Structure formats: C-alpha cells, structure tokens
C-alpha cells in the first residue's frame, strides 16, 4: 500500500479509518468508497447499488491495485479534501459525507 502524496489532502485534521478492500478490484486514491454490508469490505461508492456501497463512507487515501496482496485501505471520514481530486463525488455522496469539507479549486 502506498499513501498518495498528491495534493488531495493534508494529513493534518483528517480523521481516518482503515478497512479491507474487496479482493480483485482497483481503488485509486481519491475514490469515494462505501462498505459492502455482507462482508464489511470497502469498495467504490455506487449510488445504484443495493449492497451497502450506495452509501458513501469516506474518501480513499491510498491506491489499491487489483493485484495487491495487502488489501488494507485507509480512507478519510472527516476533514477537508480537494473536490476536483476526488473520484465519484455526487450530491448524494456529499450528503452522506457530511463531516468532509470539499474544497473547491477556486478556494486554493
């Protein structure tokens, strides 16, 4: 696992959790993630799903490759992130992630 050092976030002020990413999937840093209800595994947020991932739970802070043996993923549940660096953000995800402040590029 490699923490993404691009200007997606600063580590100061973020509250994070870690979980296990669903096997055989890739999750790039910045992806909005949800949790699969039956397994507790983290996967990309999917508003059309009915497996738990339709609820946004955080923003991935590390890249997970489909071939990684270590499936540990760290995701932010509170703090500030740059919205344009995030993947899969929609208004429903923003409502679910009410403890995350999405910074606009114009604010930088």
Key features?
mainly beta; 108 residues; six-stranded mixed β-sheet; Virus Head Decoration Protein, Chain: A; globular; two-stranded antiparallel ribbon
TL;DR?
With 108 residues, the protein is mainly beta.
What can you tell me about this protein's structure?
The protein has 108 residues and is mainly beta. The protein has one domain: Virus Head Decoration Protein, Chain: A. Helix content is 6%, strand content 32%. It has one helix at residues 91-96, and strands at residues 2-3, 15-20, 32-35, 42-44, 58-60, 62-63, 72-82, 100-103. Strands 2, 3, 4, 5, 7 and 8 form a six-stranded mixed β-sheet that branches. The chain has a two-stranded antiparallel sheet with strand order 1-6. Helix 1 links the parallel strand 7 (72-82) and strand 8. The termini are far apart.
